[in-house]
Amino acid sequence: MADSSSSLLPLCEKISHKSYVLRTVDLTILGLLFSLLSYRILHMSQYDNAWLVAFLCESIFLFIWLIIICVKWSPAEDKPYPNRLAERVHDHDLPLVDMFVPTADPVREPPIIVVNTVLSLLALDYPPNKLACYVSDDGCSPLTFFSLREASKFAKIWVPFCKKYNVRVRAPFRYFLNPLDLTDDSVFIKDWEMTKREYEKLCRKVEDATGDSHWLEDANDDFEAFSNAKPNDHSTIVKVVWENKAGVGDEKEVPHLVYVSREKRPNCLHHYKTGAMNYLLRVSGLMTNAPYMLNVDCDMYANEADVVRQAMCVFLQDSKQSNHHCAFVQFPQEFYNAYTIELSFLQSYIGRGIAGIQGPIYCGSGCFHTRRVMYGLSTDDLEDNGSLSLVATREFLAEESLVRKYGSSKELVKSVVHALQRKSNPQSNLTNFIEAAQEVGHCHYENQTSWGNLGWLYGSVGDDTNTSIGIHMRGWTSSFVSPNPPAFLGSMPSVGLETIVQQRRWATGVAEILFNKQSPFIGFRRKIKFRQRLAYFFVLVSLRSIPELIYSVLPAYCLLHNSTLFPKGPCLGITVTLVGMYCQYSLWQFMRLGFSLQSWYVSQSLWRIVATSSWLFSIQDIILKLLGISKIGFVIAKKTMPDTKQVYDESKPSQGEDDVPKSDFGKFEFDSSSLFIPGTFIILVNLAALAEFLVRLLWSSGRHGRDGSGFIEACGCVMVVLLFFPFLKGLFEHGKYGIPLSTISKAAFLTVLFVVLSLGE
Ligand SMILES: O=c1ccn([C@@H]2O[C@H](COP(=O)(O)OP(=O)(O)O[C@H]3O[C@H](CO)[C@@H](O)[C@H](O)[C@H]3O)[C@@H](O)[C@H]2O)c(=O)[nH]1
Ligand SMILES: [Mn+2]
């Protein structure tokens, strides 16, 4: 395939982002934390319980910081060179890639968003006869199917248009946000206008069909399968929406598009997205059996046309090395619409850090997997040349073991054998496999097989982290490619309730891993590197909510109770330097990524809120699950199309301030769920303490009052109020931006209790 002459430049290189300055600052902060704790130990006998509690909380913060330092010590990323790939590998020798798009709810995930994702994939700059796109619909919605069918018609205009004019962003909604440049040549203008008209027609059709369900009644046979189907009760539906029969790789061709909806029955576990991914793995195995698979969420469009080539650079370079160990290539998750700055931040510091150890964590979208690895191989199963070892051949390819692992479908087993042995499937019509695809979509198909222990791993609503750690435990590495502009862009739910709910699912999902076979706290003989294991300690994130919650009411407690919280005299310098340094450091890192002071503040605030609501409640979720009282569900995040008025500038890096609607944070959405009680409680307690402090100050009118707490503890309260500002605002707002009275009353009751107990003795 690729020319192996060693004089050639590599297709991809590892770039180190090691920085001695960052390491020094990290270590200084660690040193300050140590000094603070030492000071606390030395003066433990002088102060009361608040001192001890602060000590305990800070010990946890120190532990977290220590892990963060270990994890981001040697950041790195891979830089692919698609041009070199184009020079060296002929299109016709490029490997096949299957692309998976899961969707689950036509209301929370409007079909036009799914359609845009699919179109962006169909139009990727990669030989069309090497691509196939599979959409899994857990909502079993005729509307989604209808939209995809219409989209496949539009694709015949869109794909050639993109390729002819080398369009960079191939999601039409995004492309048409930019106005036409009238200096362009007239043929282009004509094509542009025609394509835009067709796209608008498509949008209208989808919109009309959304509003009115009567069209379904006189729709043709194609829709028969959907009659009487309920999202949670229906048989498997497999529809080849478009088959690229000619398949020679011509620019005008549109890749295969297949719609599937696996069988669902009320009492049958379906494992949410994880189950959908495993079904996609099986169906695609039957139909196209590509050695590589791209997985994007239904709202994550490809923002860069050559993204597949970028990933192939990594895989093909890896396959030239003596040990082929790269299991997946992860592109960072970037978003076009919301407060995800902290995520960009985490990805560029912590994410790159992990990438420099064994490889990034698979984060559920924007990721290319190798099929063989997903079929359960570990690095030990391969010879140096990449073929199966003798032991693995015996273990994996024996007939009864194949059936036990992958299920009873003969066709599937055959395709698995081909995949494991890296043989390509002979070209054949997709429609020949419909029956087999229906069989492997049966809701009992996975019973008594290893699905869920191979493929995407079951046992957590955080399917991504769960599957990721499983792969790293088997010795594989992964690769982090972070191009600018980002390769994929998705949507994040609006700030407030939706974010809190989503973060709760994430925290619960990763906490579930603690009780799985993949827990980072067990299996010490597994092939995961030590620091990589440490990185996975973030599955404990829920527990962090406890010290965060305590710490945010501690200053208030100290003010009310007249206890000392922070060191006195010159040693107060330790705390002040620590806080000042941390703020400056994180702010500077934010600004380096192109974000503003305001966005830094918002992100600090949002994460304190998430910690004391989402993470806190995820502990409850886990406990209820362990007690068998309730199950953990997957609440689908609500997706919205970005506002068309928001104009994007292609030339600017996309993670900057421009993509973030600034007004959002002022519009923090609340509802009456108990998720908002802790935040309301925190704000009320701190306000009460500050009020008491002011009264006391006026009372003693300048004379020195007590010597326990004082000005510095009050500063602590002010900081907490600033961090929980959306709640302060929410106290006075109405409608969805206001905190409901019921929540305020509950929190006020708790506050009164807290104040009375604190003032107590
Ligand atoms: O029963 C389900 C539920 C969800 N999905 C799909 O899963 C994807 C992710 O769901 P979303 O509601 O957008 O969740 P996010 O929190 O945005 O997703 C992140 O977090 C999830 C784990 O909690 C991961 O699975 C995702 O890949 C990751 O992007 C979407 O395409 C859904 O259509 C299904 O296919 N079936
Ligand atoms: Mn999402």
TrEMBL record:
Pfam families: Cellulose_synt
Active site: D138, D464
Alphabetized SUPFAM superfamilies for the sequence: Nucleotide-diphospho-sugar transferases (SSF53448)
Cellular localisation: Endomembrane system
Membrane topology category: Multi-pass membrane protein
Biological processes, Gene Ontology terms: cell wall organization; cellulose biosynthetic process
Sites where the protein binds UDP-alpha-D-glucose: E109, D138
Any GO MF annotation of the entry: cellulose synthase (UDP-forming) activity
Chief subcellular location: membrane
Residues binding Mn(2+), per UniProt: K273, D297
Coiled-coil portions: none
Cellular component terms per the entry's GO annotation: endomembrane system; membrane
Spans through the membrane: 20-39, 51-71, 675-699, 711-732, 738-759
Keywords: Cell wall biogenesis/degradation, Glycosyltransferase, Membrane, Transferase, Transmembrane, Transmembrane helix
InterPro entries xref list: Cellulose_synth (IPR005150), Nucleotide-diphossugar_trans (IPR029044)
Official protein name in the record: Glycosyltransferase 2-like domain-containing protein
Native species: Capsella rubella
Lineage of the organism: Eukaryota, Viridiplantae, Streptophyta, Embryophyta, Tracheophyta
